[in-house]
Amino acid sequence: MSMIRLTVASGSLTPQGRTTVQRDLADALLRCEGAPDAAFFRAQLWSYLVELPEGAQITAADDTPRFLIEVTVPQAVLSEEGKARLVAEATGIVLSAAGLAQADAPRVWVLVHEQPDGTWGAGGSIVRHADLVALAREQHAGE
Q1: Which residue, 6, 24, 62, 73, is the most exposed by fewest CB within 10 angstroms?
Q2: What is d(CA 51, CA 135) in angstroms, rounded to the nearest whole number?
Q3: What are the respective helix, strand and coil percentages of the chain, to the nearest 5?
Q4: How far is CA 27 from the centre of its chain?
Q5: Secondary structure (3-state) at 114
């Protein structure tokens, strides 16, 4: 049960990048979590693209578009190495989707939010990490 939200200024992604960036980010997160490439895990990873209207995001210095990637995962799903890989991969994905060079990497921020066990609900119930592991095992056994 992970989630990615990419917030961008409208028009800051290339047309091709706009169509691929969400799935590319989801793939990167699954790899960094070490999750099996299975339909069950793909269905649990939600991805949002939030496009802000022109002028809605600026800095005190300029109005050059910035990119914010917020990743929410159950606590301890990502190791420190996994977080570092995710930040690097996600930054590269967004730069590519925007047609930007590596020199523009400081314009991409990645925030990893770890959700403590017992604070995530779905379907009207609290879902714990152990519940997800059990469901994944059932899904894997059924394949």
Answers
A1: 62
A2: 34
A3: 45, 25, 30
A4: 9
A5: strand
Beta bridge partners of residue 9, listed in sequence order: 52
DSSP state of 127: -
d(CA 83, CA 124): 30
CA 105-80-75 angle, to 5 degrees, is: 110
The whole-angstrom separation of Cα 50 and Cα 10 is 9
Residue pLDDT, tens place only, 90-134: 999 999 999 999 999 999 999 999 999 999 888 899 988 888 778
What's the token pair of residue 41? 């895990």
Tokens of 76: 């301890």
Nearest to 83 by CA among 112, 104, 54: 112
User: Cα separation of 17 and 25, whole Å?
Assistant: 11
- Range 91-106 burial, b when 16+ CB lie within 10 A, else e: bebbbbbbebeeebee
Residue with tokens 């730069």: 95
The pLDDT tens digits for 112-124 are 999 999 998 888 9
